[in-house]
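Reviewer 2 asked us to include a model.

Predict the structure of this chain.
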Amino acid sequence: MSRFPLRSLFRPGRAPTALLLALAFATVACGGGEEAAPATSTPTVAATTSAPAFPLIVTDSSNTAVTIQAPPQRIISYSPGATEILFAIGASERVVAVDKFSDYPEQAKRLPKLEYSDPNPEAALAHQPDLVLFATRQRDQVKPFRDLKLNVLYQQEASSIDGVYEQIILLGRVTGNSEQAQRVVAQMRTRIEAVTQGVADVPQGPRVFYEVTKDLYTAAPNTFIGGMFIAIKARNIAAGAPSPFPQLTAEAVIAADPEVVMLGDAAFGESYDTVAKRPGWAAVSAVKNRRVYAIDTNIVDRPGPRIADGIEALARALYPDRFK
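Predicted model (structure tokens):
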């Protein structure tokens, strides 16, 4: 089951905040939506050499200069993506606690778990961290944590594949593991470029509907997930939507006639059979041709090293004759 908390954004009484772009959901063809503050740029590091000297100054997503006095030895990660990055770049032994959704790799499951949406600064203090990593969802908790003198590096989730590369490099520099981070990025680039080269001669890919929830929330092209579809030349039926994560009507989806449906909600019971039983969906090309696929959302909506797995999985579903 997918444990990345994208679905936790759909909660009564709260303005939904998209984990990937920090933007709200809107309704396409059937109404409006509530909008949150836009995402800021990827944090930057003052120095540019591959082996930074400490102390290191990082300007984070709150436009705050964060000083890292020395390679941190006790790190708390409140981001599943950041947790995966830390393990991939060889900093896992310095991670002392993670948010409750950080479940990969296997070792991360054994770490102490902390609240994801509304983290408690006193609970964090008990682990004596010298660095706390926050993502978009914890934006409102940055000040309370800093008021307790916790060193917080706030990184909004990357909104593009290049943004993921940048965040991996950044965490490599912050932890003193730059060489390992650069190797991870190089390996990811090689795999992703192999996929994009595999579709280089495709003039036009299939029409795709990516289903976030069964009430037809989806990801538009100007999102991290949407960018992955663009990279493999898929035509997203949510193109032109007024928000990054719009809610489509059933009529709009049927009229767009997607040739492929990717189910990001398969872990919550959606399948080819449930989609085929929806009123009017039997006429959709994806249903007629049985091209309705479950996708492991952990590898497509966590901006971390496994996005290479995600793009490969999407490519196999969209182009089965090219990718095995």
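The first strand starts at residue 25 and ends at 27. The two ends are 24 Å apart (CA to CA). We have added this to the supplementary material.
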